[in-house]
Structures are given as structure tokens and as C-alpha cells.
Write a structure and sequence with these properties.
It is a single chain. This protein has six helices and 14 strands. The chain is of the alpha+beta class and 265 residues long. Helix 1 packs antiparallel against helix 2.
């Protein structure tokens, strides 16, 4: 490969010297390949932080079409590794604040629901247990890749006061031909805590056992089985899509905190 013009330097005598001539041919090729890769990825790497900032700002508001558009722009600009769950699931580890979620209406895809105005914001659906997370403390999702566990936490108002509810379960890479960024989830735990997380009031995993007994598709991997696909991942932001047509925007909690940080999944 011909050396780039930038590689020409001046010798002590003032004559131009091509530094690549003293470089091993293999190393020269690697330098050119790395430079080409940097140029081809420069637009993606350079624009992702700006796209993240725009999406987070929109997600905090009520403009669903703009939020969904920004969501798609970010996931298309820098998708995660195709084998994420098999090669580096630990990148998902930690506690994530659910900044926004948008759910499609049953029978419509997300674009149709947004265009028709029937899409619902801030709705969390865990294997049939649906909660509205539009008010109060933002929900938290915890991922423990070593134990292949995932949990969703949300504060709910009840006649007896506010409580903290967590649904959790096991996850694993979805079987091919599903993409390597998709995890199938089997929820098996429902717990209720005091709002501050200091005391567990109820553990009712039987709710999911009952749901699977009524609807076996939840247990045998049929169409209604729960899955979550990671479509963008950085140190600070994670985007996901669910089997019910929902999209999720999550931001990593820097301190790994939250009321249930001390309670294992």
C-alpha cells in the first residue's frame, strides 16, 4: 500500500524521509487498516453522546413521536455487538433507572400506535403484571449477569400507603435464530417492600406459577414468552425492545444505589 502523505518527515539534512519504509510490511498494513476503521467509525462514535443527550432530554418530556424517533436514531447509529449476551453479558451488569418506556397498543406495532395516538408511555408489563410507572420514583431495573437474574422495581401507591414492588426472574440468551442481543426472561418472583426498602412485606412468586398454569405458553417458549432485546449499550445508557412492542430507555445509576440495592435478586 502506498504510504500516506502525512507520513513524510524531514531528515536532519532537510530531505524528506518516508518513515513507513522502515516499518515492517505487516505493521504498515495494520496501520492502514486501523486508520480506515477509525475513519469509518468516527461518525458513529462521535455522534453517539450527542444522540444520547438528545434522547434523554426528549424522554423526560411528553413528545412520544420525537422520543421514538430519537430512540431509533441512537440504536441505528451504534448497535451493540451481535453476540452481546454470549460474549460479554457482564456489560449489562448493574442497576439502571428506567427513564422512559413506550408501549404499543395490542394488535398494533409501535409506529402505528404512536401515529394513531394510542401508544402508552410509562407502562411496565412483567409477564402479565402491569404497573403504571408514570408517577413517583422512577423504576429501577437490576441485572446480575453472573447469576443470570433480572429484576424490575417500582413504587406503587396503595390504600395502606406507598410500597416498593419488585418482579424478578431468570434470563438467558434466546435460542437461534433469534439475535444474540435478545434474552428470554422467565419471571418467578414478586416481592413487596416498604417504600425505603428496609423491610420485605410479602413474597408471592406463586403469582407467576399461576400465570404459567393458566397460560402454558409463558413456560414453553411459545409466542407469549417474555423477551428483552438490547439495541444500544454504552457505559451510561441502555436501550431495549420487548416482546410486547415496548421500547425502554435506561440510564445507569452511577452509585449502584436504590432502595433495594442491598436485597439480592
Amino acid at each position: 500500500l502506498p504510504p500516506p502523505a502525512e507520513s513524510a518527515h524531514r531528515s536532519s539534512a532537510g530531505h524528506p524521509v518516508d518513515s513507513s519504509r522502515s516499518m515492517h510490511p505487516t505493521l504498515t498494513i495494520l496501520v492502514h487498516v486501523a486508520a480506515a476503521a477509525a475513519l469509518s467509525l468516527g461518525g458513529i462514535v462521535g455522534q453517539s453522546p450527542a444522540l444520547e443527550t438528545r434522547l434523554l432530554a426528549l424522554a423526560a418530556g411528553s413528545n412520544l413521536p420525537a422520543t421514538v424517533s430519537a430512540f431509533r436514531a441512537l440504536e441505528e447509529a451504534a448497535p451493540p455487538p451481535a453476540d452481546l449476551l454470549r460474549s460479554s453479558p457482564e456489560r449489562l451488569d448493574g442497576r439502571w433507572s428506567l427513564v422512559a418506556t413506550v408501549a404499543a397498543t395490542v394488535g398494533e406495532d409501535l409506529a402505528e400506535s404512536v401515529d394513531s395516538g394510542t401508544a402508552r408511555a410509562s407502562v411496565v408489563n412483567a409477564s402479565g403484571v402491569v404497573v403504571d410507572a408514570s408517577e413517583g420514583t422512577l423504576p429501577v431495573q437490576e441485572v446480575d449477569a453472573k447469576r443470570w437474574r433480572i429484576g424490575n422495581e417500582v413504587v406503587l401507591a396503595t390504600p395502606l400507603g406507598r410500597v416498593l414492588v419488585r418482579v424478578a426472574g431468570a434470563f438467558e440468551p434466546a435460542a437461534p435464530p433469534a439475535p444474540g442481543t435478545r434474552a428470554t426472561v422467565s419471571f418467578d418472583s414478586l416481592e413487596v417492600f416498604t417504600e425505603g426498602g428496609g423491610k420485605r412485606l410479602l413474597s408471592a412468586g406463586w403469582v407467576f406459577a399461576l400465570a404459567r398454569a393458566v397460560n402454558p405458553a409463558l413456560a414453553n417458549g411459545a409466542d407469549d414468552a417474555s423477551w428483552l432485546e438490547t439495541t444500544y449499550l454504552s457505559d451510561k445508557v441502555r436501550l431495549g425492545r420487548g416482546n410486547k412492542g415496548s421500547i425502554f430507555v435506561l440510564r445507569r445509576l452511577d452509585d449502584g444505589g436504590g432502595a433495594l440495592a442491598a436485597w439480592p435478586l
